[in-house]
Amino acid sequence: MSVPAKKAAEAVAKKVIPVASRAVSAAEASSIAPTAKCAGEESSMPWNGWFSSFLASSIGANNFEKLRRAVVFRPDDIHNLEQIPRPNTKVPYTEDGSKTAMFRYPSPGSQKGGRQPEEDKGSLYEDPYVVSYYTRDTARRYQDPAFPNPELEKMKLDFLPQDDEAVKEAQAKFEEGPRSSPGNNGRFATGPSDYDPSGLRASMSANHESLEQSLDANMPDHLPVPDWWNKQEKLVAWYKERDLPVPIGGTGYGTIPREGRIARW
Fold first, then answer.
1. What pLDDT digit, counting tens, does each position of 148-179 carry?
2. Beta carbons of 132 and 119 less than 8 angstroms apart
3. Residue 158: φ, ψ to 5°
4. How far is CA 70 from the centre of its chain?
5. Over the stretch 15-43, which tens digit does the pLDDT of each residue have?
6. Tally of CB atoms within 10 A around 183
7. pTM beyond 0.85
8. What does the angle CA 136 – CA 138 – CA 139 come to, to the nearest 5 degrees?
9. Bridge pairing between strands 100-101 and 187-188
10. Is 174 helix (H, G, I), strand (E, B) or coil?
């Protein structure tokens, strides 16, 4: 294509191309939204195929089709020998061609991203890259035989003879605490680091003291006592007034519908 013809085609294209196809600045890239939900039929490159159109109008559509089939390799290729289909190209995937597939529009990269659940503001887990679970795994807190429940271990030692040498040795070991994983105080091979004051984000800086503080902060506090706990005196008085045996706990919570009280067998 010659330079004058190319400039003329560009001038025509500027009038034909829709406004939504204009270039956007870096500041607009994060907030701009597509103006259509599906790929339009109008081409953004109207000058494409101008020679074929000119030749078909000159020699006639029938003669042009005969010439195209004699010259072009695979003239029935819907992709026009292009390796990647164009967004508006409908590709049939059934033998009769009744069902077709095409690229999604807007593309997944141009659509609004998914919503990621957020942690509590100001907590360690607000950072999405903090994926450690051992720092709040309270269910397995005392299952490690090397680090059992300190309160339970202290009670066991208090029940033993205090003048026994083995008991004294066990008490001294208990007071010393675990000697494993003391942490490196944020000093790595590359130098000091303060990106995590607790030291729990890296295995080299993790320590038992910080781990215990993190587990204490994540201990469950929902439903710590039964529903009847705050009215147990009232429940006991009700049974004693009627000379009835006092059951363990509060019974008769809620009501059962009639259908639930009918035997099904």
1. 888 888 899 999 998 899 999 988 888 887 77
2. no
3. -70, -25
4. 55
5. 554 444 556 666 666 666 555 555 555 66
6. 19
7. no
8. 130
9. unpaired
10. helix
Rounded to 10°, the helix 165-176/150-158 angle is 160
pLDDT (0 to 100) of residue 243: 93
Helix/strand/coil percent split, the chain, to 5: 40, 5, 60
DSSP result, 10-22: HHHHHHHS-GGGS
| Cβ-based burial of 83 (10 A; exposed 0-12, middle 13-18, buried ≥19) | exposed
- Tell me how far apart the alpha carbons of residues 102 and 84 are, in angstroms, rounded to a whole number: 11
Identify whether the C-beta of residue 186 lies closer than 8 Å to the C-beta of residue 199.
Answer: yes
Which residue type sits at 64? F
C-alpha distances out from residue 235 to 97, 146, 232, 255, Å: 76, 44, 5, 17
- How far apart CA 201 and CA 188 sit, in angstroms, is 13
Distance CA 131, CA 165 (A): 45
Helix, coil or strand: residue 192? strand
SS3 81: coil
Q: Look up residue 261 and give its DSSP letter.
A: G
Which one, of 49, 211, 34, 69, lies nearest residue 132 by Cα?
211
Q: What's residue 242's pLDDT?
A: 93
